[in-house]
Amino acid sequence: MKNVSIILPAFNEEKLLPASLKAIQGALGAFTSHGWTSQLCVCDNNSTDRTAQVAREAGAQVAFEPINQISRARNTGASIATGDWLLFIDADSHPNHALFNDTRLAMESGQLVGGGSVVALDEASKGGATVTKMWNKVSAIRGWAAGSYIFCRADAFKAIAGFSTEFFASEELDFSTRLKAHGKKSGLGFKILKDHPLITSARKLHLYSKWDYVWFLTKLAFRPRKILRSREHCKTWYDGRR
User: In a structure prediction context, what are the per-residue pLDDT tens digits for the chain, which is 242 residues long?
Assistant: First the structure.
């Protein structure tokens, strides 16, 4: 398997998307210098700005998903992917050459159905660093990939029907769980890469207050299934703040 499709779901990301695409294209040598071909796909998730135009100008193939939902955007992006491996990256994240190299080696090992990466924020913040550190530990222990960086075999993605559209948040946890179960049937594992964190945006720390998060987590603790299946309750992903 020597072909990777990189898929970015994007909703009104004209400001941050150019830097993300530039970082991805700058890191692709980790694949192409070892004989891999690559494809860059952006799913325009019903944006009202220049997201689609920015993506095309950067040389990406663009798919359109009219229903604003992260799961649907990833699935629609994957629908135009031709790679044997799929790599989902958020439109506000910046992978580097070292992370892509680790990802390629993981893919080439023949031992994995997929995996993810630990993450780091793009600016210093005590609170943000604490939460990120906690997440990275949970991610490694539970084998859950952060939604900002998930890779998997294309055949496995199809076999489990991609990301569940029941969820408006935490869909990556459900996806990781189902992907691991599928891989286990064939003796394939799931790995969280730890040596070179994905750099991702800390913008939500500025867009929402700590009380917004406290209130969300409180509701989540009591009614997780209802909260994660409701666009209205998952406003930090869907209210359009940028």
Answer: 699 999 999 999 999 999 999 999 999 999 999 999 999 999 999 999 999 999 999 999 999 999 999 999 999 999 999 999 999 999 999 999 999 999 999 999 999 999 999 999 998 787 888 999 999 999 999 999 999 999 999 999 999 999 999 999 999 999 999 999 999 999 999 999 999 999 999 998 888 888 888 888 899 899 998 999 998 998 888 888 88
* Cβ–Cβ under 8 Å, residues 220 and 143: no
pTM above threshold 0.85? yes
Query: For the chain, which residues make up each domain, given as ranges?
Result: 3-204
Q: Please give the C-alpha separations between residue 106 and each of 14, 46, 90, 109, 236, in angstroms, as whole numbers.
A: 31, 33, 20, 5, 32
Q: Which helix (H) or strand (E) holds 204?
A: helix 204-207
Q: Does domain 3-204 have CATH number 3.40.30.10?
A: no
Identify whether the C-beta of residue 47 lies closer than 8 Å to the C-beta of residue 11.
yes
